[in-house]
Amino acid sequence: MKILLVSFYYYPELGAAPSRITNMAEGFIAEGAEVDVLTCLPNYPKGRIFDGYRGRLYKKEKTGKGTIFRYWTYATVSKNPIARAWGMISFALMMWLFAFKIRTIRSYDRVVIQSPPLFVSCSGIMLFKCLYRKKTILNISDLWPLSAVELGAMKEGSKMHRIFAAIERFIYRKADGIFCQSNEIIRHIDGYDSPDAKCLYRNLQRYKITIDYREKHTPMRIVYAGLLGVAQDILGIIKNVDFKGLGIEFHLYGGGNQAKEIEEYISQHDCNVEYHGYVEKSRMADELSKYDASIVPLAVRIKGAVPSKIFDILPIGLPVVFCGGGEGAEIVNDYGVGYVSTPGDYKALTENVKKLQSLTDEEYRELTARCIHAAKTDFDFASQMSKAYDFLKKI
Hints:
With 395 residues, the protein is of the alpha/beta class. The chain is 42% helix and 17% strand. Strands 3-4-2-1-5-6-7-8 form an 8-stranded mixed beta sheet, with helices on both faces. Helix 13 (326-335) links the parallel strand 13 (320-323) and strand 14 (338-341).
């Protein structure tokens, strides 16, 4: 089978969004597929085109099992909604240059389109489903525009909300099948005119699991690795949880629109928090293995959202200190892999950190063993890819 993946994000970009599609591409290749990728010039999360790609409108890269087609986009990490929207619209328009590759497009058996961003997924549906009549599958990782409303970034019923809602209905209606990040997303989309063919596809990692349990450090080291944005609000956590008073180290990796504020706060306060910046995806598992647990935060309850950080850390045996609700909280509680507090409840978060800190060595080993067992069974990457590939074959 020959597959085209369409995504605004892709390797060598860092973070959950590019990791999701990069892992999917490599997973389908392992299943025996030939995979091409249509994406933009890498720029995320720094907000500028990476070295080696600047000054280009287009770059074609050959891989072992396919080709990556990269097109220019307006790169930005601005908080200005117009600038951010233009970044996505620019790529949504540029991808139509790919429409002239008629023979290449006709060779694809399936086209998988990542959504959000909605402008990109809408453009992809119009190009590959409406124009070329290809079998087209959406990969829905977040519910837009609902997530924007819940984050306070968009007012329900506004003109922009109505536009996004219309796009959402359009792409669901036109898709031949849908990958969904959570069961909650499946239930939401079932309420729309949408295909019956839906498949649960989580953002699992391909880490090799080499241990059965972990030993904890003294002092305890907690980590967060990922996007440092308003949806996570790590800044709020380091301002309201006294890690120094608890005798705990808190280590941060990643970047985003809160990164500068976090660096400034750390430099001005003796708070036992250390910011390490970016780390290559290939090194992330080794970095995470240095720590005893990971905080996984959501600033507000977002319907359908299950932070991929949960699945990043379970194979490494790191307990989850989860700040959020919904399906993510259910996973942590049902599998017994950590502790849960509601978004913004820093007192409860502090108590959960204390509970983790007070575990005996044997209790900590048992907790980490549950994390690893969950990763080996219900959250195994290879098993998920086999099911996802079978799903594509049946569409």
